[in-house]
Amino acid sequence: MNKLMTPDEIAGSLSDGMTVGIGGWGSRRKPMALVRAVCRSPVRDLTVVSYGGPDVGLLCALGKVRRVVAPFVTLDTVPLEPAFRAARQNGEIAFTEYDEGMFLFGLLAAAHRLPFLPTPVGRGSDVLRVNPELRTVRSPYPSPGGEPEDLVAVPALHLDAALVHVNRADRRGNGQYLGPDPYMDDLFAKAAERTYLSCERLVDAFDGPPQSLLINRATVSGVAETPGGAHFTSCEPDGPRDEAFQRRYAEAVRDPQLWEGFRARFVDVDEPAYQREVTR
Amino acid sequence: MTATRAEVCVTACADAWRGDGEVLAAAMGVCSVLGARLARLTFEPDLLTTDGGPLLSREALPWGAEAGPGGVEGWLPFRDHLWLVLHGRRHVMMGASQLDRHGRSNISAVGDREQPRSQLLGVRGAPGNTLCNPTSYWIPKHSRRVFVEEVDMVSGVGAEDAYDLRRVVTDLAVLDLGGPDRTVRLLSVHPGVAEEEVHERTGFDLAVPEGGVGVTREPSAEELRVLREVLDPDGVREKEVPA
């Protein structure tokens, strides 16, 4: 079994208007090589579902996005993601904004093929006001207080495709994480019709404890080996976040002149050229 | 020993967790993180604190330090952190870009929904935090930009809907939600701060206690020693709240 693909082949398998989930969290272990490939491809009008970081920002900057579904978009050490911010402030993209836990329940619901999962969260906040499609359900059981409770029914976050970056993978599509946090990557894979993995290193067999085997091949359609493929986000223990490059990205996004040069050198180039440029 | 303003802020933050027992002290911002760890090292030893990431550290860590070998007592990746929010054994101290009279906070966006004047983070975990957990706030710069009549987007719910809004610590004062109809009330001003300055830098009328506004306590000598020698020898706190 061999599911090896190139990042460009993976990007080429996406079509306009798709809902695409992206693993990682903020500026951590994002499948940036795959995101860059999507940026170079002709695809457009994506709905991007993500605990958002520069994946969301870069796709917004390249005009690939119609709607973002997220609890936040941040670069962590740079709190506000400048490209997402600009796209929102220019009125270019819609934003379905959920609480972090609601978003998790949306992924869990989709992963379990449930239509929704109930949660009290959202009540009293403007999440319900800005997402008028959200419905509440009356619990069939009494709450500890005695009265049945009205709960927010978080709809399943069904994904047409998911993009996830892991430390190690094999050709069959099994994926292993070696860092301190799996984020929600397995849930993205389970919530998606098709999942594409990128990995720091392709292996024939896995070392390490079995619980580090986060993604199993039954959910994976394609695998790409992309050393440095999370750059400039963190990918522990293979590498930390490239803070200097992240700052450079953030500055370039805020300045149209800088952006042209940045884009020519770091976006409109294939992955090997990108990796050469960032280590120069 | 005379405490700096930042040090007063750290102990004011630490006091937020007083009496909480064996719960996760989740903190955002330098003085808030240092406050949680100081509380654990002094008067609230059963608190759980993190390394700033997914690891629960066996001891309260100095700012920026890693847990190191043998220094980890638990694992709390984001998925379990979100479980803990609903479960409830957690007292969070959040930041806020806006906070209004009713204790509603905004970290999401300012201005029009479809085309905000300023897109901020998004609601993050604020709706769940405030609904399910005791919540406090740490505001490093008390200003009319933050303390507004009404927030643009309710990220953290107000005192009426919240599980328990405990206190708001700023670089000037300590506030709570004990005003009429559970509105923001000025409890104490930090040493050297005039009460009038807090009112001037707040965009709505602050309630005050019947017995008058107090003065925030100074850190004890032992608290200052732990803070200066153990938790923050590099003085990162002074950058967040300059003297």
From TrEMBL, chain B:
Gene3D superfamilies, sorted: Glutaconate Coenzyme A-transferase
Domain of life: Bacteria
Transmembrane regions: none
Stated family: Belongs to the 3-oxoacid CoA-transferase subunit B family.
Identification of the protein by name: CoA-transferase
Taxonomic classification: Bacteria, Bacillati, Actinomycetota, Actinomycetes, Streptosporangiales
